[in-house]
Amino acid sequence: MKTRELNDPPDASKATAPGKEANSSRDLDPEMRAARCASRRNARRANALLLALGILLIASALASLMLGRYPITPVEAVGMLANLAFPVDPFWTPQQETLFFQVRLPRIVLAVMVGCSLATAGAAYQGTFQNPLVSPDILGASQGAAFGAACAILLGMGAFGVSASAFLFSIAAVMLVLLIGTRARGNHLLIVVLAGVMVSSLFSAGVSFTKLIADPNNQLAAITYWLMGSLTGAKWSDMALAAIPMAVGLGALFALRWRINVLTMGDDEASTMGVNARRTRLIVILAATLITASSVAVSGMIGWVGLVIPHLSRMVIGCDYRKLLPASMLMGASFMLIVDDIARLVATAEIPIGILTAFVGAPFFLYLITRKKQKL
């Protein structure tokens, strides 16, 4: 049976006959029927909004493929993409094909990956720590990655070495924070956040020291530029390595999105619902850290995406993480694409994307917290 009267005792004489299943909802009290109808309306609205965000992402990606100092027409872009699946007589130049597949397309894919990962990590952290001001770098992941990248640049490593070092130091920083959290006594969530602040400060001092001893003619400029964040020079090989941990982390968070709803209610409520809050929180933190470290390793430090986009998603779709997490993924990817287009086109020299995200994110966040009816 699909529906049963909630107030009825378990008596066989009151069981709904199979032929009357369609009328069982009429026996519910008016308040329950109204709540059920409202829930269905909200679900349909959320699904429609997710579809709209998906269309926005596709439109942003297609526009990004065609925009640039060397424009590619929509017909040429579609033709080159179709040529991957079946033979098409080229009506574009070899230079356009090289630009399209070796420069523009990998950059767009990287922007989608990084925006999706940072926004998802921010939403997961905010729900896990029950704090709306938490961002993906709260546990020291970004500063750890910055120190690792700076050390790799000092040692003269290539792009792959810089990304690998940034990833490893980012993971190490978060592991140190979690280790401190297990050793200290008191409020576990508060201790973890405080440990993240202290570890971030420690690695930030390390970055300052590397800049102090770096060669000012070469290494210092490379470290400074990396710290500002950029998607320039995106390569398929770098993205292939970052895609694996990103896929693992995003998949885990997507599978646990309903459990994050439970975590927002508190540990006691989670226990009554059969959810191990401590273990679930640890898995969520590790998954969010994995995608944060992967993102920072391939793009540098890009702030505000993981803080602002989850709040914007809540305004649009609500606080249910079953819908909020997919919305954050789609909105974060679209936001990163749009900001990257601005970085490429607004000036003669490309603007580091970390600067633009701060210019856009900070005023928008101030608008959010000063709205009269908006509560973070």
Per DSSP, the total helix count is 14
Helix content: over 70%
Q: Give me the strand/helix succession.
A: HHHHHHHHHHHHHH
**Helix and strand composition category:** mainly alpha
Nearest-angstrom radius of gyration?
24 Å
Walk me through the structure.
This protein has 376 residues and is an all-alpha fold. It is 72% helix and 0% strand. It has 14 helices and no strands. The protein starts with 29 loop residues before the first helix and ends in a 6-residue tail after the last helix.
Please tag this protein with its features.
about 375 residues; mainly alpha; about 70% helix; about 0% strand
List the helices and strands and how they pair.
Elements: H1 30-66, H2 74-82, H3 94-129, H4 141-154, H5 159-183, H6 188-213, H7 219-228, H8 236-255, H9 257-263, H10 267-272, H11 277-299, H12 305-317, H13 321-345, H14 353-370
Helix pairs in contact: 1-13, 3-8, 3-11, 3-12, 3-13, 4-5, 4-6, 4-7, 4-11, 5-6, 5-11, 8-11, 9-11, 12-13, 12-14
